[in-house]
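@channel sequence for tomorrow's demo:
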Amino acid sequence: MLGRPEETFPLVEKAIRLSPHDSNLGEWYLSIGIAWFMMNQLEEAIVWLRRSTEANPELGINYSALAPAPVALRVAMRKPEPPCRRTCACTRS
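structure tokens (generated this afternoon):
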């Protein structure tokens, strides 16, 4: 990926097309999931990271990559608090 996650998709898709029953399919899905994660497309990242764990449940890095994704998605969907919320009397009741 080297900081260019968008370049991952055509390369990995070609690898999967050439060898759809590859024993490393979970790793290919992992690469796609991480690329989506790097592009801040968290819902899509979760889909592909889950596929990676299903394709190769014995590969621990799949779970390490998947674990923070739902939390990141929830954080991304929250509305930011005003910066003065805790310190300013203007927002206290």
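heads up for whoever presents: The helical segments are 8-18, 25-38, 42-55, 60-66, 68-77.
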